[in-house]
Amino acid sequence: MDTIKKIPVILDGDPGHDDAIAWVLAKSSPLLDIRAVTSVCGNQTIEKTTYNALRICTLIGNHAPFGVGRPRPLVAEPIVVPTVHGKSGLDGPVLPEPDFEPCGLDAPALMEKVIEESIDPVTIVPTGPLTNVAALLLTRPDLKDKIARISLMGGGIAYGNWTPAAEFNILVDPEAAKIVFESGIPIIMAGLDVTEKALVFPEDFERIRAVGNKVAQVVADWLEFFYGFHRNLGYPGAPVHDAVAVAALVKPELMTTRDLFVQVETAGDYCKGCTVGDWYGVTGKAPNATCILDIDRQGFVDLLVEAVKTYD
Ligand code: BDR
Ligand code: CA
Asked: 110 and 67 in contact (C-beta within 8 Å)?
C-alpha cells in the first residue's frame, strides 16, 4: 500500500484568530508533518502571542517543539493591533491553559535545528511578520537549500490593508520581508489579493459549529469574534487570511496563481511595506514568488469544515 509522503513544516505565527484557524487546518491534514511551532511579535507583544500559541497547540493536541520568537521586528518599532484580535491578541472563547512549555531554543534557533536535522527539505509557513525567518536566514544562509519553500500570508499585489500600499505583516517588519523575498527560496505568497476572497460567512460558522466537537465550537467562536471587527468595515464574512497559506499546501487546486517578481519597499513616504509585483515583467527579472490571486471560496470553507471534523 502506498504511504503518503508528508511535507515537513514549521508553523510560525502571531496568533491571532486566523493564525489559529490555519494551525487547526495544518494539524488536521494527513499531508503535513508539523516539526515545530514558533511565535513572533506581531498583532500583539511576544508574551501574548506566545501564550496564545501555546494555548492553541494545547487545544489541538499539537506538542511539536515550540520556540519563542523575537520580541521585536529587525529594525522597525512593533505595531500591536488590539482592534483586530482584541487586547489579549486572541479574544473570544475560553481556551485551555498551556499543557507544555517552550523548548528553550528561540524561534530562529529551533528552525535551524529542525531544518538541519531533517532529511527532507522543510517548508516554513509564516502567518505573521517575517522577523524569525529573516533572523534564521541572516545567521544560517547555508540552510537555504534545505528550505523547500516558504508559504506565507503577507503582502498584496493590488493593495494594502494597514496603509493603502502595505499589508500588516509586511509593514510590521519590511526589512525582514525584503530578506525573505530576496532569499532565492521558492515563495508562495498568500497576499490580500486572495485572502480578502477567503471569506467565511455567518452561515458557514454555523456549519462548523454543528460539527459539535470542542475544536469546532472554538473555531466558530473565533470566526464570530474576527467577523465582528470586519462586519463594521462592511465585509460579508470573516477573511481567514492565514489559513490560505496552509490551504495552498494541502489543497493547491483551490488556488489561482501567477508567478511574479516581487520586491519589498522598505522606505518611502507612502509605500513602506508594499510588496511591489512586476505584473508586466518590465524589470526583466525572473519571478521569485508564486502569488495566489484567487480561491474557490466554497472549496476553502468545505476544507475548514472537514478539518474540524478530524478532532475528537
Ligand atoms: C494579517 O494580519 C493579521 O492580523 C492576520 O492574522 C493576518 O496574518 C492580515 O493582514
Ligand atoms: Ca497572523
From this structure: yes
Residue 180 is which amino acid? V
Going from the Cα of 177 to the center of ligand 1, the distance in angstroms, rounded, reads 15
Alpha-carbon span 289 to 277, nearest angstrom: 9
Buried b (16+ CB within 10 A) or exposed e, 33-72: bbbbbbbbbbbbbbebbbbbbbbbbbbbebebbbbbbbeb
The pLDDT-based confidence of 1 (bands split at 50, 70, 90) is: low
In a domain, 1, yes or no: no
Q: How many domains does the chain have?
A: 1
What's the domain range around 137?
7-309
Confidence of residue 112 (pLDDT cuts 50, 70, 90): very high
Please name the helix (run of DSSP H) or strand (run of DSSP E) that holds residue 75, with its range, or none. none
* Ligand that comes closest to the CA of residue 14: 2
User: Is the N-terminal amide bond of 86 cis, ω within 30° of 0?
Assistant: no
Give the distance (Å) from ligand 1 centre to CA of residue 284: 31
Which chain residues have CB less than 5 Å from ligand 2, an ion?
16, 19, 127-128, 242
User: Domain for residue 122, yes or no?
Assistant: yes
Q: What is the mean pLDDT of residues 74-82?
A: 93
Report residue 114: phi and psi, to 5°. -65, -45
Mutate to test the pocket of ligand 1, among 24, 48, 241, 292 (most ligand atoms within 8 A of CB): 241
Instruction: Output phi, psi for 58, to 5 deg.
Output: -65, -45
The bound ligand whose nearest atom lies closest to the alpha carbon of 17 is 1
CATH code of the domain in which 14 resides: 3.90.245.10
Q: Which atom of ligand 1 is nearest to the CA of 16?
A: 6
Which atom number of ligand 1 is nearest to the Cα of residue 84? 4
Cα–Cα dist 235/17, whole Å: 16
Q: Is 0.90 topped by the overall pTM?
A: yes
**85 a catalytic residue:** no
Distance CA 100, CA 63 (A): 7
Residue 164 placed within a domain? yes
Residue 30 lies in a domain: yes
